[in-house]
Structure prediction request, 64 residues.
Amino acid sequence: MSDGNFNRQLLPKTELASGIRAGKAQMRQKAEQAFCAVLSKYFSSESQSRQNEIKAYFMDMLRN
Prediction:
């Protein structure tokens, strides 16, 4: 270790990064469900294809 290199196997296990990814995935799922509920309640007059188009655009925005 004197040269600044270390063995990653000696470091303690941390599941922080995977936990953050899992949390983001859960929040994305909840956002999608909430958005679908809003679409069906307030935009029920729109055609199903238009609702799918709006939902796809929303999901694209969430991913970026």
